[in-house]
Amino acid sequence: MSIGIRPRPRGNPSLAVEGRRPARSRASLRAAGLLLGLALLATAACLSLAIGTKQIPLDQVWSGLFAPSGTENDAIVRELRLPRTLIGIAVGAALGLGGAVMQTLTRNPLADPGLLGVNAGASAAVVTAIGVLGITTFSGYLWFALAGAGLAATAVHALGGGRRATPVRLALAGTAVNAALFGYISGLQLWDLGTLDEMRYWSVGTLAQRDPSLLLTVAPLLAAGALLALSLARPLGAIALGEDHARALGTDIRRTRLLSVVAITLLCGGATAVCGPIGFIGLMIPHAARSFCGPDPRWLLPYCALYAPVLLLVSDVIGRVVVPPSEIEVGIVTAFLGGLLFIHLVRRRKAVRL
Asked: Could you tell me which residues come within 8 angstroms of residue 268 by beta carbon, excluding any fewer than 6 positions away?
């Protein structure tokens, strides 16, 4: 008489199904957050088109976009507010992505794209173009700003150790380069008051009076930076777990760091070249998105690309209506909001943990 041995079941299938449900529900919730971001972005774009010194009803905004009849409102919508809104969307997405990559790369929750010297490098190049070469047009500033941002980021990466760069070294090198460049900027402005007068229109950070052709010029750079940042989501997620874990997962840490610096330079350098330095967007949005979607860059980066332009456009609308008929530049509004958030973050965390 043979005795059959019944194989032991490998777990309860019903329990396995129950274990998958939370993961599926989290993914569904995150996907819903992306859809909400799209809806909020569309709403913010409509507000940007409708609200200003002159309020335009949404039905007239729609007709001005798709069935213009040559009225004054059509001209305002198509020639003034539509380019401003499109620039705000592109620049906001670039700053949000750059901030998320920067914070993940350095594992520093208070990191900002300016930490790599991008803003300081662009500003130093622009002030040189104005004070030394006599260039006074935004189209003339553009390539100087891009070149300055790239050179500053390259210098920070080299001073931080090059291929052996670490998050701490990058942060220290960025602080040193920023201090040196802003000292140079202040000295040149004080030496030439005409440079100071021209520079203040660019350095304040604004979406107003920007030539739409500038966006067309930098659009390929912004698109390349965005695609590069999104392609680095998986290796950045591995690095966020620690270098040992990243190596165990087969991540090329040096290559990822170098490509991340390139992505940040393209995104933030292009955005700064078009609108001037706009601070704190890259700091605020990754924090807000991370509290909802978690630290995984595969979700964090798309969230930042959607919600950062929402914040930028809403801040721009606030600047238009707070002191009518004048307006406050968006860089000032975001600096005020970002300063409040920064104080909150510092008070929440001990200095030894930063």
From this structure: 94, 95, 98, 113, 114, 116, 118, 119, 149, 282
Residue 163 and residue 189: Cα distance in Å, rounded? 36
| 77 in Cβ contact with 67 (< 8 Å) | no
Residue 232: CA atoms inside 13 Å, Cβ hemisphere, count? 29
Question: What's this model's pTM, rounded to 2 decimal places?
Answer: 0.85
Instruction: Characterise 162 by phi-psi region: left (phi > 0), alpha (psi -120 to 50), beta (else).
Output: left
The stretches of the chain forming alpha helices (DSSP H) are 13-50, 58-66, 72-75, 82-106, 118-131, 138-159, 167-191, 193-203, 212-231, 233-240, 243-248, 253-275, 281-293, 297-321, 330-348
Task: Report helix angle 212-231 to 233-240, nearest 10.
Answer: 60
In angstroms, the CA 346 to CA 344 distance is 6
What domains does the chain contain, in order, with CATH numbers?
Answer: 33-347 (1.10.3470.10)
CA atoms within 13 A on the CB side of 21: 6
Block means of pLDDT (10 residues each) for the chain, 354 residues, are 47 46 77 95 95 89 87 89 94 94 81 78 86 77 83 84 72 87 84 71 79 85 95 90 78 87 88 85 89 90 96 94 86 85 66 38
In sequence order, the 6+-apart residues with CB closer than 8 A to the CB of 348 are none
Question: In this structure, what are the phi and psi dihedrals at residue 134, rounded to the nearest 5 degrees?
Answer: 75, 25
